[in-house]
Amino acid sequence: MAGIGFELRKILARDSYSSTLRAYVYAGLLSAGPWVLSIISVMLIGIMSIGVVFPELLVRQFLVTTTYLFATSLITTGGLQVFFTRFVSDRLFEKKPHVILPNLLGIMLIATICAGLLAFVLLWWLFDQPFLYRLLVLTNFVTLCNLWLVIIFLSGMKQYNRILLTMLGGYSLMVVASFFLRPWGLDGLLFALLLGHATLLFVFLFDILREYRAEKLIAFDFLDRKQVFLSLLLTGVCYNMGIWADKFIFWFNPMTSEHVIGPLRASMLYDLPIFLAYLSIIPGMAVFLVRIETDFAEWYERLFDAVREGQTLQHIQQLKSEMTVAIRQGLQEICKVQGITVVLLFLFAPKLLEWLGISHFYLPLFYIDLIGVSFQLLLMALLNVFFYLDKRAIVLELSALFVLLNIALTLLSQYLGPSFYGYGFTVSLAICVLLGMMRLNKSLDDLEYNTFMLSR
Amino acid sequence: MTDQNRSGPVAQHGDQADVCLLLEGTWPYVRGGVSGWINQIILGLPNVTFSVLFIGGQRESYGERHYVIPPNVKHIEEVFIEDAWQFAPRAEQAPSDGSVRDLANMYRYFHHPQKPDEITGDAVLGALASGQLTMQDVLRSRASWEAITEGYLNHCSDPSFINYFWTMRTMQSPMVMIAEAAARMPRARLLHAISTGYAGLAGCILKRRWQCKFILSEHGIYTKERKIDLAQASWIAENADEALNSSLDPSSGYIRSMWIRFFERIGLMVYRNADPIIALYDGNRQRQVLDGADPDRTRVIPNGIDLERWNALRQTRAEGIAPVVGLIGRVVPIKDVKTFIRAMRTIVSELPEMEGWIIGPEDEDIEYAAECHSLVASMGLEKNVRFLGFQKADEIIPRLGVMVLTSISEAQPLVILEAWCAGTPVVSSDVGSCRELIEGGTAEDRDLGQAGEVVAIADPQATASAVLRLLRNPERWQTAQTAGVARANRYYGEALMLERYRKLYSNSMGNL
Fold first, then answer.
1. What domain range is B276 assigned to?
2. What is the ipTM of this complex?
3. Domain check: are B360 and B282 in the same one?
4. Which sequence ranges are marked TM in the entry (chain A) (predicted)?
5. Which pick of A320, A355, B298, B373 has the fewest CB atoms within 10 Å?
């Protein structure tokens, strides 16, 4: 998204430590924002509720229900997110911003209907919980599905302070509401969750409505095959399934999981370390966003301007090597920052877990998960570069490989025994990152050839 | 492909044609001198069967056929060079690796600044004729990319790579497309190209495929005409700096020079492969030799007109010298109508009863036509100079006292021959074969006398003096008329021309 690049460049242009720090904080919050803040808030609600909500199983039921809500909504809309992001940037490139808002409403309508029907069928068929619980799960699910579509626009918007305030407000509301709604147990907590996410959804939607002009209320241009890339739907689904595949395997293997509520199962052993590990990639994500959206994007634009404006081949090649350097530096910086974070966490993990009241039994799994999520960050960075270079086939290949490997290797790790838990996830990501690097190398080598000889 | 929806009889497949005509942008779609000549040949040699490969630019710019396809034309194949880079298949499948050697040779032969050798040319022709070099190779392959970028880095002085790149594509892909079209042609016994350029290239490729004789007839000089086009072309994207340079020196600009080189190289290839190489007059033959044609293969066959028909017109002339000076031609800059008008000013000052007729359509260059009209007005010639628009030549020529040709470029204008048969002396600018026509080429020819006068181009004063000399001196006029009639009848009859081609065909095919 172009917007964030410009804003970050503006902040960085002030060239002071505080402004640089601010750029990274913005970037971190924006990129990691919604889902990391969600994890933190939900955990906070869980921790606050321990000892207040009885029996404790209810807290666990709340946490597991929430996790499933995130997982399923992300997988359901993963395809749409990638697909619609591309649609939006193509229309912006064509200088047709007025078609965006009607199409957002169109895709939200479709997402709401489909998500609603899906949730209705599943809840009716698989669950025998009270009506209120099922209703809350359904509304939460539909809200999240819409929220994931709306946050596509965040990085494209200009009022960052407003976005950050909205996030702060939404998640604070969620936590505060849960405090007051605790007496109503599981239903109360789910309602607090809904309240928080719905607030975010509608405030963001309001901001988007104000920012984009439109000539009509609703449109379905994204159903026109000429304007979209259907393969992106598959890519998005694969990538999100890849992220969750190992978790579902652990949840549904009776050896590693226990029943929690309705058909939902969870794996105490597996879940806690990995969700903690996810928090460790916030600094890396900030670095990644700043590097990719400023340096890389800038060289990328200059490169393709040079091609269009008829610069010399030598100049084009020069710009390409600058762009290559920017990518390399970006990846290196992610490695540095993530490396330091991982080393620090390795050192302090025993104390940290002790402080959080988590058994040392989890340590090995936490270590391997830390490495795994770092690879996931690198994979995200690579996919982002591939999206810029319009290498849709490679992104699809990597995403599909990721989901297949994660399933296969996680099953293998379960077969090999508890000391191998977590390796399936980490190794599958390591392989994907390696392959991605190779593909990136080749794509950059062939960039001019592809651009000139194969584009038209 | 033979498009059967177009007008004209359906081409028949099956029986082998005697002569395969290779035509670029002419018959049967476009009217004009060359097309008329082709029609003349086909109709004039009814015992010879023809097949036609028509090469056009843009498919859309050719509407209906202007000529009825005669029954001795057995097959028509059409190919449009702009299709080459517009319908190029987008390779989602793995791009071919291409033939490194063929593509390097292609660059070496057509685009390298140094004049190529024959071995390279033969290798390129071989690759094109065998179908070894495909569109995919040229448009998509890595080898092609290597050849193109290497050429750019070593030789290109135009900074814009994208301009260079697309220029290369626009040159190379049509050659492969023409080779592909040539492969679809049913075999004929003899090849006859009516120009170098793409048609000549097709001739070279087919000669290689069929191992038969390849005749080249050039009316103008293709390479020279392309150079004139290119000097005026606005479609050549040029860098701002370069545009500035080229305004100082019109021949500069790397992209332009690439195009000129490209057509020169094709010309060279065609001259090396064609035998005989026929020009309309000796001036052009010399030019062909200069451009690389082997003098032993060159020869001259002038155009001819239907003598019977035109000679008959002399009977329709009024007695004496009609007080009319006529210019027959489209009102366009190349005919330099303004010089004619300026000359008329002098003529009318001397002989006020004289009239100047400008006979030809004015719709081709409306702006120029308007300028001509206002020039007539500003010179006060409204009473004497008339714009008659298009007229039938056989009705108007006998009514002229003297015919004037002020063109700045001509090959062998048939209108001079027609004027002579109709008994009209001609004053012409010294372009193309005009001097050879009017004063005579060989010694024997010269003995017939001057059939008018030749003057420098764009010289109204000399033109006027020449016209006045003829008009004021009936004896001189009479001599010129006699010389014209004699010369046209001896050297420029249609029957003579057809006979020469018939002989050429039958010699080249063995028997006919």
1. 1-90+185-304+493-512
2. 0.74
3. no
4. 21-54, 66-88, 100-125, 131-154, 163-182, 188-209, 229-252, 272-292, 334-353, 365-387, 394-414, 420-438
5. A355
